[in-house]
Specification:
By secondary structure, the chain is an alpha/beta fold. Helices cover about 40% and strands about 15% of the residues. The protein folds into 2 domains: about 5-100 and about 215-265, Rossmann fold (3-Layer(aba) Sandwich); about 100-210, Rossmann fold, CATH 3.40.50.1860. The strands form 2 sheets. It has a 6-stranded parallel sheet with strand order 4-3-1-2-9-10, with helices on both faces. A 4-stranded parallel sheet has the order 6-5-7-8, sandwiched between helices. Helix 11 (about 250-260) links the parallel strand 9 (about 240-245) and strand 10 (about 265). Pathway: Cell wall biogenesis; peptidoglycan biosynthesis. Its EC number is 5.1.1.3.
């Protein structure tokens, strides 16, 4: 069978990974990008690790069998921090993860005080503290686990007007912590927050450097893809957007995904009931 273009599968619990899709499309327009969102279990931070790992592995093994991607990008911090080893053992293709940009922040910060906006689940995971110890031990790390921001990002993706007071409260909750006045660099610890970045910048003090990992993840994925073996597939297989539960937003969702070159969405039949 002939092949037209390489193929990438982007996975997240919701729409957060669409920021990585945007970056991939900008960097390599010919790349065929499939998207799988486990919307039936959004948000992942509310789930227990072991059954969640089993579910993620099952979903991506099924998606690999159907779509035959050349590479998978796990555009979800929670899924990356708990499931990457299991996924790399289960799938015969490169798996790229997405983790909070603490190492990057440590390279950039001049005051040596860095901030991280993340979900509450990411904020409490030992993985974050290990990243700090391994890659930015000379920096003070201040973390705010902002449960509302992911939901606000889903609304931003749909083009909805966002409540300014809610966004300002989350930024203030980070900057008003002890030592927060020294923060000069803030990393986005959830892929959803890409869609909030312009608003978040409005409510922070001037001069802060904001780090969105989506473009860096996209660049890394394309570098790995350069040497990845191509999978056999039907050359006419169109890019697909799969969800494990019907989306909220109706026409707004349809318009939003069309901006990212997905003409429609379908339910991903996973038949997995371990959670």
């Amino acid at each position: 069978m002939g092949l037209n273009h390489q193929r990438c599968l982007v996975f997240d619990s919701g729409i957060g990974g669409m920021g990585v899709v945007q970056a991939l499309q900008h960097l390599q327009p010919d790349l065929v990008i499939d998207y799988l969102a486990d919307t039936a279990l959004y948000p992942y931070g509310e789930q227990r690790d072991e059954p969640l790992i089993a579910r993620i592995v099952h979903l991506l093994k099924t998606a690999h069998r159907r779509l035959r991607p050349d590479i998978v990008v796990i555009a979800c911090n929670t899924a990356s921090t708990i499931a990457l080893p299991a996924l790399r053992a289960a799938l015969p293709i490169p798996i790229i993860g997405c983790v909070p940009p603490i190492r990057w922040a440590g390279r950039v910060s001049k005051t040596r005080t860095i901030g991280l906006l993340s979900t509450t689940a990411t904020a409490r995971r030992p993985y974050v503290h290990q990243l700090h110890a391994d890659f930015a031990p000379d920096c003070k790390l201040i973390v705010h686990g902002a449960r509302r921001l992911a939901d606000l990002a889903e609304q931003a993706f749909l083009g909805k007007k966002l409540p300014a007071e809610a966004l300002k409260a989350e930024v203030d909750a980070l900057l008003n912590q002890p030592g927060g006045e020294q923060i000069d660099t803030i990393g986005l610890g959830c892929t959803h927050y890409t869609f909030l970045l312009p608003e978040l910048e409005l409510y922070a003090k001037p001069g802060i450097t904001w780090l969105d990992p989506a473009p860096a993840v996209a660049r890394h994925a394309l570098t790995i893809l350069e040497t990845a073996p191509w999978q056999d597939r039907l050359e006419h297989q169109a890019a697909t957007l799969y969800l494990t539960a019907a989306p909220q937003g109706g026409e707004d969702f349809s318009h939003a995904i069309k901006r990212l070159q997905f003409g429609k969405w379908d339910i991903f039949e996973d038949r997995f009931e371990c959670i």
